[in-house]
Design goal:
Blueprint lengths: L4 E7 L10 E7 L1 H4 L3 H10 L13 H21 L8 E4 L5 E7 L3 H16 L10 H13 L15 E5 L4 H14 L4 E5 L2 E4 L2 E5 L5 H8 L6 E5 L2 H7 L6 E6 L15 H8 L1 H4 L1 E10 L3 H5 L7 E5 L6 H8 L3 E6 L2 E6 L2 E8 L12 H17 L3 H10 L2 H4 L5 E5 L2 E6 L4 H14 L6 E5 L7 H14 L2 E5 L10 H13 L8 E2 L2 H11 L5 E5 L4 H10 L3 E2 L2 H12 L1
Keywords: Ligase
InterPro entries: Mur-like_cat_sf, Mur_ligase_C, Mur_ligase_C_dom_sf, Mur_ligase_cen
Protein name: Cyanophycin synthetase
């Protein structure tokens, strides 16, 4: 017999639905949505819902009817089980025959039993059969009541300050910068990211630890005094956040990425997911948000913490709003990273061009990451001198591998960067143009993981082909995620063809695609690669070819030469 259950997922911490551990049921309610209206109405009455209007078969109205039914089933079973009050969230999915039901839990065994009971009552619906469901609900309620309680949520309650960082772009760089500032302040710092878990600059565990397990790994380090956790959407959706609260939350931005996965189909829904970290920030802490991104700026309204906004524009309306609300701001004023507070004079910290990560002020995205990191560090109460030292000693290649790493090879430039989505590629193209001297060409090795939507992959192909004089494709064999490389090639080439570029050769790896471009490069050219898996081998190969890492002084000279 078909069942309504698609998935039962136990979320161990704060999540999209609640600020604490919850059970998430993904349900297929096709039977209810496709049933004749009289039969649907009878079922609603049988579970005690009373007067209803089911609406037309397969319609949005019918889906909303199913939402009411599912929520009522949860509450009826909970009452029968002796649970006085229970929070319930029922959310529609794009498919009108799908719903998500979520409720918080304190004991895993009983929570799973409640989830199973909800499915059992929904499965009892028969379009051609009227039934009194009171006995079934009572039976299910007794079963939930008598179920062994099981484990409590494993959500951690940290004893050291925690900074949680999220965003579509810049979260790894910002996390690393905050951790670096913490070390400049003399603290023992642990941080987790998509690259692994680090403690005092040493890699403890390699892998993607941007989920709740990363927080656990960081906080388990002996002697830790500050934890910085990169928090990605996937971890929030799959398991929730691993800590009960944070002292500072940072949201860099929200742009299109990973859409169509995990029930997240729009940028607004993605913003909902990322806002979770701001909702568990302690009231005495700070919620640091990008004032130039309306979605992140709005997150301050759902946070119990005070708002610390950042923007490159000192006259941004968001800055005026937050200062009027009693918050703080970090911006660029007369070329300086500057803190603004309504109650005191502006406080300049350091010249933007003296922060290596900004690439002499050329990288607008890294200027924003700098503002975010400074805000978070000061919000933690770290000394001003440590913030300045941390910002000015954070070197792109050494401290931020894989993000805007720049090399000089013979008489041209090579750039290695993650650039995994449209905003990332836009930032990479900005840098390439910023260091290209007159007469130099842009040469780009593109690529994408296999789980990106065709629309995004085609857009990347069009963006790269439009901006660069020469493009290649370098596959990410470890990240194809079941998708044939030929399929990705076809979508990339379709995007490139849409802007008139037909010659797009493909290579099995990022390294091979980069080597092909380097072989063609001439004096003044800028070669860049969107790298995800070959960063270490690219760095090693470039050095073997005689490439040197660009120092801030070399980079500054390249920027000046490009401008003149």
């Amino acid at each position: 017999m078909a069942t309504a259950l698609v998935e039962l997922r136990v979320l161990d911490g704060a999540n999209l639905y609640f600020s604490r551990a919850a059970v998430k049921l993904t349900l297929d309610v096709s039977a209810l949505v496709d049933a004749p209206a009289p039969a649907a109405k009878v079922y609603a009455q049988a579970i005690g819902l009373g007067s209803t209007r089911p609406g037309r078969i397969g319609s949005g109205f019918r889906q909303r009817f199913a939402i009411r039914v599912a929520g009522h089933v949860v509450r009826r079973i909970a009452r029968a089980a002796g649970i006085g009050r229970i929070g319930v969230r029922v959310r529609p999915e794009t498919d009108v025959r799908r719903l998500v039901v979520a409720f918080p839990w304190a004991h895993e065994g009983r929570a799973r039993a409640l989830g199973a009971g909800i499915v059992e009552v929904l499965d009892a619906f028969r379009p051609d059969h009227e039934a009194d469901l009171s006995d079934l609900i009572a039976t299910v309620g007794d079963r939930v009541r008598n179920e062994p309680p099981g484990n409590a949520p494993p959500t951690l309650r940290p004893k050291v300050p925690v900074v949680a960082v999220t965003g579509t772009n810049g979260k790894t760089t910002t996390s690393r910068m905050i951790a670096h500032i913490g070390r400049a302040a003399g603290l023992h710092v642990g941080w987790s990211s998509t690259d692994g878990v680090y403690f005092d600059g040493e890699l403890v565990k390699y892998g993607d630890f941007s989920g709740p397990s990363g927080a656990g790994q960081v906080l388990s380090q002996l002697g830790i005094q500050l934890a910085v956790t990169e928090t990605a959407r996937g971890g929030i959706l799959r398991r929730g956040i691993g800590v009960a609260y944070n002292d500072v939350s940072v949201v860099t931005n929200v742009t299109a990425d990973h859409l169509g996965l995990g029930g997240i189909d729009t940028i607004d829904q993605l913003a909902e997911v990322k806002a979770v970290i701001t909702q568990i920030t302690r009231p005495r802490g700070w919620c640091v948000v990008n004032g130039d991104d309306p979605r992140t700026f709005a997150m301050r309204l759902g946070s119990p913490a005070k708002c610390w906004v950042f923007s490159r524009d000192p006259d941004a309306p968001s800055i005026r709003t937050v200062l009027d609300e009693g918050g703080r701001a970090t911006t660029v004023l007369d070329g300086f990273v500057t803190v603004l507070d309504q109650a005191r004079d502006p406080e300049p910290l350091v010249k933007v061009v003296d922060v290596p990560m900004t690439l002499s002020g050329l990288s607008h995205y890294n200027v924003e990451n700098t503002l975010a990191a400074a805000s978070a560090a000061l919000g933690l109460g770290l000394p001003r001198a440590a913030v300045i030292e941390g910002l000015t000693t954070f070197a792109p290649n050494e401290n931020n591998p894989g993000r805007m790493n720049m090399y000089s090879l013979r008489d041209f430039t090579v750039v290695i960067d993650l650039a995994h989505n449209e905003a990332g590629l836009e930032a990479l193209i900005e840098i390439m143009n910023g260091v290209r001297p007159p007469g130099g060409r842009l040469m780009l090795a593109m690529g994408s993981p296999g789980d990106r939507a065709d629309e995004m992959v085609a857009t990347l192909g069009a963006m790269g082909a439009r901006a660069a004089d020469r493009v290649t494709l370098g596959h990410k064999s470890e990240y194809l995620r079941g998708r044939p490389p030929e399929e990705l090639e076809a979508v990339f080439r379709a995007g490139a063809a849409s802007v008139g570029v037909e010659d797009v050769p493909a290579y099995p790896t990022e390294l091979a695609a980069t080597q092909a471009l380097v072989a063609e490069a001439r004096a003044g050219d800028v070669v860049a690669v969107m790298t995800l898996q070959d960063r270490a081998s690219l760095d090693s190969w470039l050095r073997s070819e005689g490439a040197t890492v660009d120092t801030p002084e070399v980079l500054k000279s390249k920027v000046e030469r490009a401008q003149h």
